[in-house]
Amino acid sequence: MKYPVLGTLSLVLALHVVALAQNVRPNQETVPKANTRKKAQPAEVVFPTETATVIIPSWLPSSGPTQPAATILSDLQHTALDLRFDWAKQQVIGSATLTVRPHFHPQSQLVLDAKGFDIRNIRLLTGNGKEKALTYGYDKRQLTVNLDRTYARTETYQVRIAYVAKPNELPASGSDAITSNKGLFFINPLGTEKGKPRQIWTQGEMENNSNWFPTIDKPNQRMTQEITLTVDGQYKTLSNGLLVASKKNADGTRTDTWKQVQPAAPYLAMIAVGDFAVVNDTWRGKAVDYYVEPKFAGTAKAVFGNTPQMLDFFSKKFGVEFPWEKYAQIAVRDYVSGAMENTTAVVHGEGIQATRRELLDQNFDWVIAHELVHHWFGNYVTCESWANLPLNEAFADYGEFLWTEYKYGADAASMVQATALNHYLQEAEDKRVPLIRYQYREKEDMFDRHSYQKGGRVLHMLRKHVGDEAFFLALNHYLTRHKFSAVEIDELRMTFEEVTGEDLHWFFDQWFLQRGHPELRITHSYTNGQVSLRVQQTQDSTFTPIYRLPVTVAIWGNNNQSTTHRITVTKADQTFLLPSSQRPSLVKFDDESQLLAKIEEELSQDELVYLLQHAHNYQQKQQAIEGLRPKVADLTVSATLRNALNDKFWGGRVAAAEALRRYKGPEGGAVRKELQRVATTDTRSDVRAAAITTLNSFSNEDFGQVYDAALNDSSYTVVSAALAALTRNPTVASQPKIATLQETPNSRVITALGGYYALNGHLDQYEWFLRHLETLQDADLYTFLPNFGQFMQRMPPIEREKGIKRLEVLARNNPSYLVRLGAYKGLSAVAERSQELKTILQDIRAKEKDEGLKGMYNLL
């Protein structure tokens, strides 16, 4: 499973999970984390054996109940579904034939997950076409089938269930990661929503496929499957495995049968129905297909076209050839998550579809690689319980790094590493839990930046510790030994121990089974041919371990050559003496930038300048630039940053441009001239946009010509940055160009226009705002709605009523917490002079059920 929503991915994933070409939207408010809470004050508790109180930090969550792996009573071996659909009622009319055998103990009952069904009949297939009716008990959650006798573990039997599934009538619920758990979704079922296609698609993880077919909905089950879909002849279908039959029917429908002969967990089953263009590709004789809306057929290969190369890369990297029958990817409307790794048929949200102009600013390799890696880690070898979810997600997250490292180079991979680490550290401000956690309140709690970003960084440290050869050999053994089975963390550990010969309990214990991360203070001095390097672990050791940290230290001499030392930190306060024949130009702790840690490294200005000049990855460049930022007025520092505007890696150029914001030091004219050059000529749109944003930080200075020219840029990112710059400094020349942007089919430009019109709009834009309330995705609405509220401040009262009512409905009823929060902020902007609106806001706060959102309201 991938993060919350791809449009939000630009994401709330916090929600912008980086990959190589992911961009930060200039001058737009950061989307809040899904689990944002008002920080609790540290609580005091008294341990019975102590007389003193222990301060409990705010990031230590209360413990949930123990969540063991599901007990296996019966093995689900094969599922055959025959499905039709009632679009008007949003129901599935189905027949499920399940092939089952007892796992170990004899069984006289079969217990299935089946949520909210109407059960028509249940029959035992006795052979030779004969059937026997079976009795059953059903509480609308679990279906208990009474078998005709007791079956031993050596006996297989088949049960056929005729049913109607009504997922749309189930109680509405969801989580930050999966915003709805209906399992199966009808999109625009009556065809009444103009411009939106009719579709059916499913989202099974975590245990939501039992909303549309009866199954044992647990990750430690495995089944082969055959799914038959009868649909209107105009629609395409997709499911797991291969299309083995397709028959046109006399009534204008068509019946397609999809068959997967290799077993996978029930949550990985999927179906999709709709009007899709299918763009064909291939890899080693296997079909690789891309299902998109017809208008995006021309750019499907531009989006997904690296997939065959990825299949080749990961097959070689893991030493296991892609083990499934085919590989298809489909983009659907109104998807409730970011993407989902259903075996052989990955579902993406509509945001992955893009025009050629949009692709100038971004690519989607990171999410494509993530879901593909799941076909080894998650689908081929599956976590036996949700407590072990990082065995799926950490590997998929690290797959993003591996692909970027291979395809785009060390700097780009280092940027992935830095961004993921920062995302985890942001979450760790409010939440620190073990990676593998057998205690949690809700399954969806496992979908967090621990399971993803922390897990990926832990795997990187493991790779650095054992070395590349041992790391990938161990992964090969792990995949080969446990293929088509469910595993827990110890099996991964034991595989690495077998390959390396090292007892790795210490590594797996501190990184997988304990919470938190090291917080390090690094200082050094030089005396008598020795560098004295002091490493202090300052984290709260009451709830976090003192870590064992194998790490490299580089000592740079005056000859621009470095000597690398391998040290192992094992104490809370430890000093290492390292030889150096001369006073070093730089002492760099964690020279490989591998540690998952919060590091405060004391480096002088000269050392930071030296580091930037000799950095061998993006993280070191970023560290140097951030360290130099407060000293930017210094002539040496400003010259160094100006030089960094020519860095070979675009991320370094962006960081340098951002560091020069509000620059007031010497050679200001040279700095501004260089930024104007970058804003107009850099080959990378992210860099041009960053330079424009930095120019806009110089108050009372006119760069209108640069901004006006940028409105014609090929990049939507640059156009958006120019709009943000012109928002507070509009020019007469820009007005006609801005007017022509109103119909731009790009959400980034639309949200930037919303910010522009919030301060510079007129009544003419009122209907434009109202129209885009219907077209924007959740993360964009979060920014757009407060701007709409600010815009309405200047509208005549009689004109504001319609907009206020729309905001109120969104703030009260929208299923997305982001939209509710944005609408609330929009109403707050209008309510400054209205007691009636203040009363409405108070009522919205009182009736909001999300306690985290209430906390955000109280901060406004």
TrEMBL record:
A Pfam family assignment: HEAT_2
Protein name: Aminopeptidase N
Domain Peptidase M1 membrane alanine aminopeptidase: 306-511
Coiled-coil region list: none
Annotated signal peptide: 1-21
Limits of the Aminopeptidase N-like N-terminal domain: 78-268
Family annotation (PANTHER family): PROTEASE M1 ZINC METALLOPROTEASE, PUROMYCIN-SENSITIVE AMINOPEPTIDASE-RELATED
Catalytic reaction equation(s): Release of an N-terminal amino acid, Xaa-|-Yaa- from a peptide, amide or arylamide. Xaa is preferably Ala, but may be most amino acids including Pro (slow action). When a terminal hydrophobic residue is followed by a prolyl residue, the two may be released as an intact Xaa-Pro dipeptide
Domain of life: Bacteria
Classification via SUPFAM superfamilies: ARM repeat (SSF48371), Leukotriene A4 hydrolase N-terminal domain (SSF63737), Metalloproteases ('zincins'), catalytic domain (SSF55486)
InterPro entries: Aminopeptidase_N-like_N, Aminopeptidase_N-like_N_sf, ARM-like, ARM-type_fold, Peptidase_M1, Peptidase_M1_aminopeptidases, Peptidase_M1_dom, Peptidase_M4/M1_CTD_sf
Alphabetic keyword roster: Aminopeptidase, Hydrolase, Metal-binding, Metalloprotease, Protease, Signal, Zinc
Keyword Protease carried by entry: yes
The protein's required cofactors: Zn(2+)
Gene3D superfamilies: Leucine-rich Repeat Variant, Neutral Protease Domain 2, tricorn interacting facor f3 domain
Presence of the UniProt keyword Protease in the record: yes
Catalytic activity, EC: 3.4.11.2
EC class (word): hydrolase
Family: Belongs to the peptidase M1 family.
